[in-house]
Structure formats: C-alpha cells, structure tokens
Amino acid sequence: MKRFVRTSVVAVLVVVLGLVGVLPAFAQDGGVNCNGLSKDDCKLYQGATVAMEDVHAFVMPGWDISANIDAEGERMMFASYGSGALELPMSLIALMSDMPDMESVQTLQDMTPLINLLRMIDAEWVKQVASELVLEVDIERVMLMTPDESQEGSLSLIVKDGLFYLKAPELIGDSDWYGVSFDDLLASMDINLAELDVAMEELITELENLDLSDLSEVEGLSPEMMHELQAMGEELNELLLSFEVVTRGPDESLHDQAMATFVSEYDITGLLLSMDLAEMLARLVNNPAFADLFASGDSMMGEMQVDELQMHLLLTAVALIMRGSSFSVEQWVGLDDTYIHKLGLHAVLALDVSPVEGLLGGDMGMGMDIDMPTEPINMSFDFTVEIDEHNALSPDAVVPPADYEPMPLEELQLQ
Hints:
Blueprint: H1 2-21, H2 39-52, E1 57-71, E2 74-87, H3 90-97, H4 105-109, H5 112-119, H6 123-132, E3 134-145, E4 150-160, E5 163-167, H7 169-172, E6 178-181, H8 182-188, H9 193-209, H10 223-242, E7 244-248, E8 252-254, E9 257-266, H11 268-272, H12 275-285, H13 288-293, H14 308-321, E10 326-334, E11 340-351, E12 377-386, E13 405-406
Parallel strand pairs: 6-13
Antiparallel strand pairs: 1-2, 1-12, 2-3, 3-4, 4-5, 5-6, 7-9, 8-9, 9-10, 10-11, 11-12
C-alpha cells in the first residue's frame, strides 16, 4: 500500500504541476493555431495564451486525472482528483526569463547566454527558490485498479516559507500533519548544496574552455548539420499544425464570468496519410546528418534508406492500426479577463494490427524487423484543471497547519 500511494502521489504531482506549468509556454511563437476560427475568435484565442504568459500565481479549484489501459483481456485504471494553489518564486521567474533557446543552433555556437544563466544558479539561489515557493496540492483520492488488486489513498501537501508539510494517512499511518524544513529535507537525502556550487563552477569552466570554432569534430554537432535538422524540424512542426483544427463551442459560465470555449482536435489519420509527411520523413531519414546521429551502437537507423512510397506505405499501415485514436485540447477563456480558466487534455490510443497483419509481417523493404502486438490495445488519458485568481493569490490562500509533528523521513524512505 505504501509503495503504491507514494508512487501514485508522485505521478499525480508531476502531471498536474507539469501540465499547469506548461500554460505560459502556449504563448511562444508558433504555439497558437487558429485553423478553423474566425478573425475575432482567433484574436480572443491568441490573446488568452498571451495573457497566460505572465501568470505566475493561481488557484486550482479542482483538477482530475484518469488513465485506462485495456490489453490482452486485462484492464488497469488510474484516477485521482483534488484541488490546489501555486505561486512561482520570483527568483525562478527571473531565471526563466533569461533562458536561451536551447533548440537554436546559435546557442551551440555562442555559449555566453547559457553561461550567464548558469552563473545565477548556486546554493543561495536554490534556498531562495525554496523559501519563495508557495504550493498546495490536495489529493482527495488517488485510485489504482489492476487485475490483481485495487488500492486507494489520499494526500495533502503544503510548501510555504521554506517548510514542507505533509498529511498522508495511508502513507504514514495516521491523519496528523507532519513538517520538515528545506535544509533538513536535503540533509535527510545526503544533499549538500555546497557541492552544487562546485559542480556549477566546473561546468561553467568546461563550457568556457570549449572550442566552438569547429563543431564538426563533435559527432552530430556540425553547424551545417544542426542548421539542416533544425530547418526540417520547423517544417515538420508547420505540417503538424496544419492538421490541427480549432472550433469555438457554446459559451459557458465559470468563476462568476462568461467563458468562451475552444476545442483543438488533431486529425491523426489525415496526418499519417499525408504524402507531405511521407516525403518529409523519407527526406529526414535519408539525410546524412540524420544518419550520422544514429550511426552508433547497434542502431540500424544510420544504415536505413527509405523512399517516399515506402514511407507512405508504412504510415498508411500505422494509420490503419491507429484508426480509433484521437487527441484534443479544450480551453475555456474568460470573456472579462481573457485568462484561461479551464484546460482539458483528452487522448485515446487504439492499436489494432488485424487490418494490416500480413503487411507488417516483414521488414517492408526498409531493413527493419517490425514486431507488433497481436491483440488490440486501448489506452485513454484525460486531464482537466480549473484555474482562477490569476496573479491574485491572497496571502491566506495557502495556510500551513498550526500544529505538526516532525516528518518521519526514514519511514518515507527519503534517505
């Protein structure tokens, strides 16, 4: 039970905080697609994502996540729901604002912005981030059902003023609050922040001494190769966006204001059947730069040669196998404040090789052995979160417990 609850809680926290933390990234160039929207709706849709770029604090009145897997006659189900609040540390926001584009070739040719960024990260910065972070996650219920067992639990976590508070009845064994300081938590895990300073200095020294005048000596990192792969990646991204269609649904009401609702749906089948995708992937696979990147170890990717028709045949087979799959994103935008107040991700992955079982029995002339499952596999994932009080988190929105016991770190296996 303890192992299950601990693992499940970590998974939920990573997913919830990760997905919510991604919201500001929607405002990056190329991240907002208006295919299917009118001019006015597009302006509202894009304005919402731009508004979310500056959001650093909010409450989550409710969130829920569920996943189901049906394979080989057996089913596994995971579900959790709860609420929470988050205020990002200003020291972290400052660091993120100076983050260089790590996908840019220019970053590899001039390490100065990256080095300057790394100089900001030291032991004192980490302590400051921990002291400024305000977080509350209330997992009212987390459940896991497998063919062998059914388990469930609950957990509440609060982080404020450099202290971590935890209430986990199924994990610890009682319903009391437990707390630990950031310093004691690090000590329990044998983490010495002084070693971080030493490691960062060593890394910075290595980057400063790195000769960037001739990256061709570094396998897979020549400027020409990186420029070519980056251009192909941008081309592929534009193609993917062309198969996303956004529609505006009926207005709803939430958080005391009217909401415009938008749903982005991805035409997975249309994308896979596209000759443009087949041509692009064949060009990528046959590119010498791509071959050099995968020409090590036991990988066959560096030796594979695929023409456009072979790639189209493979993608057509994949489209038939995935014909029941879907992916969509739902957003509710406040008509008064233009913030995103509700976000939903819905994905279905359905795999059934029966329509192409004979076709995929060999290597399709591409030098690859393809081993596919013989039974249908169905997986679904749903995540929904409500977001409110954007950049207006009140001081008493997250209140630590007045009384708590020392956290039993050994029992939680943090050492």
